[in-house]
Amino acid sequence: MAGAINNTPRSIVTTESRPVRYLLTGLALLFVGLFLVIPLVSVFVEALRQGWNLYLAALVEPDALSAIKLTLLVAVIAVPLNLVFGVAAAWAIAKFEFRGKSLLITLIDLPFSVSPVVAGLIYVLLFGAQGWWGPWLSDHNVKVIFAVPGIVLATVFVTFPFVARELIPLMEAQGSDEEQAAMVLGASGWQTFWRVTLPNIKWGLLYGVILANARAMGEFGAVSVVSGHIRGLTNTVPLHVEILYNEYNFVGAFACASVLALLALVTLVAKSYVEWRSARLALEDQRNALSDQ
Predict the structure, then answer these.
(1) Helix (H) or strand (E) holding 60
(2) Fewest beta carbons less than 10 Å away: which of 85, 89, 199, 201?
(3) Quick one: 253 exposed, middle or buried, by C-beta within 10 A (0-12, 13-18, 19+)?
(4) 119 touches 222 (CB < 8 A)
């Protein structure tokens, strides 16, 4: 289950001997250190190698500021769209039986199996100058590819499953008894959603939004295809980092990369807090249930 919050108590029963456990733990820590921690630390070391002044200058450079603003703008548009779709899709899949339900679940997972580059090419085929709808868009002076709308579309595609796949198993596990009870007591559909469903899924929803936001800010492949790499206009932070690195501007490249790394660390902290908070609430619910018996 992609990114689902697991509230099941961890088992402490193992059959492996102590040396085997130490060996497996050491291998895991060695792998994490070599492939995650050291590369992450090296980003900040390289960014600050020539001092704070050059580091800050690289971040306030006009093209860098434009890339940061565009990255935030795309995330602000794409994440709420996926939030609305994810809640609606999860509600329909978890609460109702209908023809085509399996197909809808499969389509939600499609971005996980399709390369982001292929996703970008699909939008070029549809909205590009020589694409299916390109001539019509050109006649009406609407630009999608090599402009912000194309970047938003590509980002929405790659972040499509995160909220829905987080909520579907959660809502299926909760069932619909509480919603049915609210409806029997006279609550409208909207009241049932706001006062019954939403409070039950709020932590899972926040978890999915965090993951979708992280992917939206760091997406490279699909955005690279549809952006056109226009400095100051269509470059997001990942694209700007690539351009600076190819121009041997290593300080600027690592400084902008450190912004993405900081966002990733903030996302990780937020994700951990949501997991901790959800597990704590689940434990409190179990204690309350036991005390009521």
Answers:
(1) helix 52-60
(2) 199
(3) buried
(4) yes
